[in-house]
Design a protein that fits this description.
Blueprint lengths: L6 E4 L3 H12 L5 E4 L17 E2 L6 H16 L1 E2 L2 E2 L1 E2 L3 E5 L2 H16 L5 E3 L1 H7 L10 E5 L3 E3 L1 H14 L3 E3 L4 E7 L2 E7 L2 E4 L3 E3 L5 H7 L8 E10 L16 E4 L4 E6 L2 E6 L24 E2 L7 H10 L8 E11 L6 E4 L6 E5 L3 H17 L21 H13 L23 H6 L2 E6 L2 E7 L24 H12 L10 E6 L3 H8 L11 E7 L5 E11 L2 E6 L2 H9 L8
Parallel strand pairs: 1-2, 1-15, 2-11, 7-17, 15-23
Antiparallel strand pairs: 3-10, 4-5, 6-10, 7-9, 8-9, 12-13, 13-14, 16-19, 16-21, 17-18, 18-19, 20-21, 22-23, 24-25, 26-29, 27-28, 28-29
Helix pairs in contact: 1-5, 1-8, 2-8
This protein binds flavin-adenine dinucleotide.
Flavin-adenine dinucleotide binds next to helix 1, strand 16, strand 21 and helix 8.
């Protein structure tokens, strides 16, 4: 094994293999990928994911990552065997409310360029013949969704990366990451030391352990148990193809999903209480033993889902459960991946809490980010620095990750706040705001008023357009009246929830002028609303900058990412 590398990637699951492939495509050489388990069924989540890929997601970036992943897996094969089966997907609606949600999803998909259609129950049966049409109100069909063969895709991507100089080593555990003077220097492994300036953790649910090795780059993920079972063979599927002839199915009203496995069916369920595990409890895979990412199946948690599976797909009534697991994979407080470079240990990167569905896209994004600092797609919702310091408490991470596990398939309004750990931060005006009938939503952990019932009388005389039931949630016509009166008269706003940064020193003005698009060289006392940019002129954030003195500014930022970006770009001469 090499004793030097340009980058060491920890983990040869779907994410590690994908980043290696994309980095070498962008010209990186001396890429070394290490896995503690055997290649490429290394024992992590990738080894047993059934590979369903539903591209649509309430986040546009996540949808784009999934669309790229479908494209990339479709291009791959391993010794002539495909890595993706384009069987299509149907999400069924078992309630009128879900039917409405599917209509909204169809709208999102259309606006984001993902072909889709709304189907009647009978049209659903044509594509998924085991469905009971009496149980559903219709479905949402995406023809380009399908099934990824994740382990195959790992090996196919690894071969491509190897052809461009990457090296993959199994049965090699990373035991330490050496950081000196705030920079990565080397990794220690069970087979010796590798000198390197760059380490990328793609260790999935082991990620927090690797993060701790590199210092205080908290990794806010929790491994969760998730149930997946295969049935015994179904007579209805006799003579079926070796993978699947049917579309994959999502049954969101019961937090379940289904796929055909040749003459069997696979049933996945989130319909159980959250079962978090500490990353420190998960061992490493030793050939011949049970994979560390597989926990013992708990049949009592599967009783309700199994009943529902047989109601939705009556053919399952004649089948038994065979081959069932509680598999482990990572969840974060907001359900999105964790990506980016540590600001405390330069050269330490991560790409974790990523589904198979998004892994090729995340691989490309990480490679671009590591190469040019500016990925093609917007990484803001995936940046590991997006969390406030309070969100790093283990109790918070576990509570929110459990909630995001339970809500994986729920109908979530874009403004719907998390219910746990509230109120967390209240402003000095909180008591008075409550007296005025404030309706609070959460912002950066702060309780932030969205309108005051005390202003209800202001609605009269103002023409506030009505909203329908969905767009009117977490909203009141009072909001409209308050906005209009702010324009016409004078209003007082509590800005406590905005993050503040004080910037001072002889180089403060130059520093801010270089980081933003606005003209900040204004008299003391002026406040400027401006955009903070990246190297390519892309928008990082919209901020306000108040000039408090000649060399002293205060910025109102949106969140921790803004501060991290400022700190990352501070001049090295100490003038700020
Ligand atoms: C039952 C089940 C069903 C799922 N179904 C789907 C699905 O249908 N669709 C979907 O998109 N996703 C699905 N997922 C999720 C998906 O499997 C994971 O999110 C994904 O595989 C994570 O990939 P990864 O590369 O990040 O992690 P992993 O595959 O876990 O890879 C991490 C690797 O890091 C290695 N490693 C860790 N620590 C070290 C160390 N110290 N030194 C060296 N190597 C180390 C591990 O051995 C491991 O191989 C499912 C997961 C489960 C459990």
């Amino acid at each position: 094994m090499e004793d030097r590398a340009r980058v060491v990637i920890v983990g040869a699951g779907i994410v590690g293999c994908s980043v290696a492939e994309h980095l070498t495509r962008l010209g990186w050489r001396d890429v070394v990928v290490l896995d503690q388990g055997p290649l490429f069924e290394a024992g992590g989540s990738t080894s047993h994911a059934p590979g369903l890929m539903f591209q649509i997601n309430p986040s546009k970036t996540m949808t784009q990552l999934a669309a790229y992943s479908v494209k990339r897996y479709s291009e791959l094969d391993l010794d002539g065997k495909p890595c993706f089966y384009r069987v299509g997907s149907i999400e069924v609606a078992a309630t009128p409310e879900r039917r409405k949600d599917l209509k909204r999803k169809h709208g999102l998909a259309t606006s984001w360029g993902l072909e889709s259609a709304l189907l009647s129950p009978d049209e659903c049966i044509e594509k998924s013949p085991l469905l009971d049409p009496g149980r559903i109100y219709g479905g949402f069909f995406v023809p380009s969704d399908g099934i990824a063969k994740a382990v195959r895709a790992c090996e196919a991507m690894a071969r491509e990366a190897e052809s461009r100089g990457a090296r993959f080593y199994g049965n090699t555990e990373v035991t330490d990451v050496l950081v000196e003077g705030g920079r990565v220097k080397a990794v220690e492994t069970s087979r010796g030391r590798i000198e390197t300036e760059t380490v990328l953790s793609c260790a999935g649910m082991w990620g927090p352990r690797i993060g701790r090795m590199a210092g205080p780059f908290a990794q806010l993920l929790t491994p969760m148990q998730h149930q997946f079972a295969k049935t015994t063979p179904l007579p209805e599927l006799e003579g079926a193809s070796e993978e699947s002839d049917h579309v994959i199915l999502r049954h969101q009203d019961f937090s379940m999903y289904f796929r055909q496995h040749a003459d069997r069916y696979g049933v996945g369920s989130y319909r159980h209480h959250p079962m978090p595990i500490s990353p420190d409890e998960i061992g490493r895979y030793e050939t011949g033993k049970t994979m560390p990412s597989i926990m013992e199946f708990t049949p009592e948690d599967f009783e309700g889902p199994w009943e529902e599976a047989r109601r939705l797909l009556p053919a399952l009534k004649g089948a038994q459960i065979d081959d069932a697991i509680n598999g482990l994979f990572s969840f974060t407080p907001d359900g999105a991946p964790l990506m980016g470079e540590s600001s405390r240990a330069k050269g330490f990167w991560m790409a974790e809490a990523v589904w198979i569905t998004h892994a090729a896209g995340v691989g490309r994004m990480t490679a671009e980010w590591m190469t040019s600092n500016v990925p093609t797609l917007d990484p803001s919702g995936l940046d590991a620095h997006r969390f406030e310091p309070y969100a790093h408490s283990p109790a918070y991470v576990s509570a929110r990750s459990s909630q995001s596990y339970q809500e994986v398939y729920d109908i979530i309004h874009p403004l719907q706040p998390m219910e746990e750990s509230r109120p967390l931060r209240t402003s000095p005006f909180y008591v008075r705001q409550k007296e005025l009938g404030a309706y609070f939503l959460e912002a950066n952990g702060w309780e932030r008023p969205h309108w005051f019932e005390a202003n209800a009388s202001l609605v009269e005389g103002h023409d506030i357009p009505d909203r329908d039931e969905w767009s009117g949630r977490y909203w009141s016509p009072i909001v409209g009246a308050e906005h209009q009166l702010t324009r016409e008269r004078v209003a007082l706003y509590d800005m406590t929830s905005l993050k503040k940064a004080e910037i001072w020193g002889t180089g403060a003005l130059d520093f801010l002028q270089g980081l933003t698009a606005g003209q900040l060289d204004k008299p003391v006392g002026k406040v400027t609303y401006t955009l903070m940019l990246d190297e390519a002129g892309g928008i990082k954030s919209d901020i306000t900058v108040a000039r408090l003195g000649e060399h002293h500014f205060q910025s109102g930022c949106n969140g921790p990412r803004d501060l991290e970006w400022m700190e990352r770009n501070l001049p090295e001469d100490g003038s700020v």
